[in-house]
Amino acid sequence: MPWCYLPPDDEGCAKGATPVPRARQNVLLELGYFLGRLGRDKVFALTRGTVEILSDFAGVVWEAMDGNGWKQTLGRELEAAGHAIDWNKVMRA
Prior knowledge:
GO terms for molecular function: NADP+ nucleosidase activity. It holds the Pfam family CAP12-PCTIR_TIR. Residues 8-66 form the CD-NTase-associated protein 12/Pycsar effector protein TIR domain. This protein is an alpha/beta fold and 93 residues long. The protein has one domain. It is built from three helices and five strands; from the N terminus they run βββαββαα. The protein has helices at 25-38, 69-80, 87-92, and strands at 3-6, 10-12, 20-22, 44-47, 61-64. The radius of gyration is 15 Å and the shape is globular. The two termini are 20 Å apart.
């Protein structure tokens, strides 16, 4: 299962509106590639902070990187996709 990391490294807005944090356009392009190639149910996205999420990416599993809960969620998603997960390492990281 591929995953994408979407940090708020950029800002964008409609003309005349207030800029909001968003991921860089190349990251969104890569996320779109994974969605088109593999399907929404096989892609995992990690976000940090407040990031604008486009409606085109509805159906993707999103997880905020706050605390350590995201590591468990990512581990569960990878395990469900057939990857062997060493939960001792996940819990220590």
